[in-house]
Amino acid sequence: MTSFPIFANDLAPLLTLDASSLPSLALMAEHLPCGLTVINDTMHVLICNQRCRQLLGLPSTLFETGPPSFEQIIRFNAERGEYGEGDPDRIVAEWVQLANEHRPHVFERSRPNGIRLEIRGIPLTGGGFVSIYNDITQRNQAIEDSKRYAAYLRTVIESLPQGISVIDEHLNMVLWNKAFFEVLALPESLDRPGVTFEELLWVNANRGEYGPGDPAAQVAQRISLAMQFQPHKFNRTRPDGTELEIVGKPMDVDGQVVGFISTYTDITPYKRAEAAVRHANALMEDAISYSPTYIWELDADGCFVFIKGGEKILGYQAEEMIGNPLSSFLAPEQGIESNAVLSDMKRRRAYKNGELRYQRKDGGIVWVSSNGHPLYDDMDKFIGFRGVDVDITELTQARSELERMAWEDPLTHLANRYRLLDRFELEVDRAHRNRNHLSLLVADIDHFKSINDRFGHLFGDHCLRMVAEKLQQSVRAVDLVSRFGGEEFVVLLPDTNLAGAFKVAEHIRQAIENNPIKHQTPQSSETLKVTISIGIATSLLDQPIQFDDLMGEADEGLYQAKRQGRNRVISLVPPPTT
Length: 578
Prior knowledge:
By secondary structure, this protein is an alpha+beta fold. It has four domains: about 10-140, Beta-Lactamase (2-Layer Sandwich), CATH 3.30.450; about 160-285, PAS domain (Beta-Lactamase, 2-Layer Sandwich), CATH 3.30.450; about 290-400, Beta-Lactamase (2-Layer Sandwich); about 410-570, 2-Layer Sandwich (Alpha-Beta Plaits). The chain is built from 19 helices and 22 strands. The protein has a five-stranded antiparallel β-sheet with strand order 2-1-5-4-3. It has a five-stranded antiparallel β-sheet with strand order 7-6-10-9-8. Strands 12-11-15-14-13 form a five-stranded antiparallel β-sheet. α4 packs antiparallel against α5 and α16 (about 450-455) packs across α17. It is elongated and about 120 Å long. It starts with 7 loop residues before the first helix and ends in a 7-residue tail after the last strand.
C-alpha cells in the first residue's frame, strides 16, 4: 500500500523519480509543515515546495525558466553570504564535492536573518537526494508538531472505516487504504504499485458490479465520466446486497486538476436498521473530514493538547478545548467514576468502542464511540492518551427509542408490565439489603365497562389517560406507576410499610374522586365522576418476597373493595392503628 510519510528516511524508498509521480509528490509536499526538496541524479531540483522556498528565502525568479540545478542554488546562496564570508566559486565547489559523495547528512546552519535551520538529507537509489528543512528556531515545538503530524498522517487513513483511493490526472491509482479493498471486495492481484483505475473498472464490470450490460461499454462510460473530474456523491448496491456510499472530489493545483480523491463507505448496517444516516456534506480536504470522527490527544493530566475534526461534532474550535480537561466537556449526566472509558484512562489501559456523552457548545448532547491508547515517551514515562471518537448520537437515540417502546404502555405512557417486573426484582434486592418494606398497590377503575358502553372507547381511553396522570402526580419520584392491563394499574412503593401504603392509596383514591372528567361533544357537555378501588400488599421483613405473592394479596384486597361497594382501599392485613 502507498503510505504518506514525512521524514526523509521514510520518503526515500517511495520516490522513484518517475515523471508521472512527480505531480502527486509535489502536491503532497505542499501539505507538509516543513521544507522539502528532491534532486535527481543530474543534480537538478525536481521538487522544492513553497515552505522550502520561504525557509531558504529563494526568489520565484530562480524557478521561472525551469527547475534550477543544485549548483545554481548554492551559487545564489554563496553570493548573498548565506555561508559566511569567502570566495563564492570555492564555496560552490566545496558544496558540489560534498553532494557528489552521495552520503546521508544531518546538519544545522543559521541564516543571516537569524533563522536556524536543520537540514536532513538522504541519497536516493539511482542518484539524487531528498532533503527536509525544518525551522528549529523554536526547536522543541517544531519537532513535536512535525512528529505528531506525521503520526496522524501515517495512521489516520488506515484507521478509518471508509475506503480511501486517490487517482492522478491520468487515472493511475496512486494511493489507497486496506478498507478500500475490503469494502469493494477487490482481488489481491490489484494491490500493487502501478495499478490503473481502468483495471479496477474491468474487474468490477466482468463480475457484474455495474449490472447487466456490455463490460467494455460500462468501462468506457466510467472512464469518460472520471476524466471530467467532477465532484460526486451517490449510492451503489453491490451484487451481494452491500450498499455503498461513494463520495469524490477533484484535487487541483493552481486551478489545474492533478487527480481525484474518493471515499467508499459501507452503509448496509444503517439501511438494515432503518436508521437515518447522515454523512458530512463537505468534501474531504483531509481524511478526517470524510467521516463523523475526530482525533485527539491528552496530556498526562487528561487535558487536550491536540484535537482535529472536533468542531463539526462538539461545536468547539480546537483552541477552545486545548489546555482544558476532557472531563470538563462531558455531559452533566455522564458518570465519571462508573464510566468504563474514564476508568481505563485512569488505569492507563487501551480501550475500544467505549461510550461517552459530551455536551456540545450549543447545549446539545452527543454520544461518541471512543477508541484510545496510552502514550509513553522514550523513557517509558506515561505522557497521555491518543484516540479517535466516532459520533453515534443517532444510533444511540434510535436504540433508546426502541428501549422506551419496549418498556412503556403506548396509551398512558406509564411503565408496562415488563418494566414493572424488572424494577420489582431490583427493589426486592434493595429491600433485603436495607431491611425495608416493599408495598404494592393494585388499582382498578370502578364501573369502567359502563363508561365504555355509555360514552365509547375513545372516551374510555381518555379516562385511562386522566387516571394515569393523577396516579403519577400522587406518588414520589422513586415510586413506579404501571398499567398492568385494561383498566388495572399497579403502583410499586419502595421503602414503604403498610401504614405508608395506606396513606398513599387513600391520597390516590381521593385525588381521582375529587377530579371528575369532562365529557364534551358538539351537542352536550357532561361531567363524569370517576372512582377507583385499591388493594394493598406489603412485604414482611426478613421474609422472601415474591411478585406473585404480593400481587395475589393486593388483588384479593381489590376484590374485597369491589365487593364492599367500590371507591375504597382494602388490605387483607388490617392497617395499623395510631
